[in-house]
Amino acid sequence: MGLSEEQLRADVDALVQIEPLFGSALARVGYPPTRIRERGYVTLMRTIVGQQVSVKAADAMWRKLTDLVGEPIDLARIGRASDDELRAAGISRQKSAYLRSLAEEVLSGRLDFANLPEDDEAAIAQLVQVKGVGRWSAEIYLLFAEGRRDIWPAGDLAVQIEIGKILGHEARPSEKLTRAWAEAWRPHRGAAAIFAWHHYGAKGGAAPV
Length: 209
Hints:
Blueprint: H1 5-18, H2 21-29, H3 41-49, H4 55-69, H5 75-80, H6 83-88, H7 93-107, H8 120-127, H9 135-144, H10 157-166, H11 175-182, H12 189-201
Helix pairs in contact: 1-2, 1-12, 3-7, 8-9, 10-12
């Protein structure tokens, strides 16, 4: 499961010791809440369903999908479902292909959520074999569902914006620069990302899944 409240707070405190500007931000917005998701294919499937739609729309689509294939999710039923059936649940043709890809990877045994590689980059490489799952989605899964402490989604725009602001930069830093800055924060970069989203959310911004 994701980072516990105790671990998250400890990692944020460690970040403050490394970079005091996090301390100033912590005084403004407080500690971030935990972000814990269920380990396994259901969480990744929900991420796919929620791509490029509002949270409300994603929830409605998920309810229709579970009505169609059952809950817990029947992966074999996903594989058999026609485009028309999935479209009736609000799932686009493209997302239907992504869901079938995930079901196939799991049912074939090529993707085993209980035994992902311990190395973060190797785990990301396995997850992105699923159609529609890019690096960001894989990183979010590993951070929220597995609680991997050093995951750093430097490509996330909100992370870039808020890390820039926390460090006193008005312009949004590039992914390359965001990644370079965070090297000094290992192994607490996951907490840095969660704190960045919290800092963003404190202004009314939307947080990831």
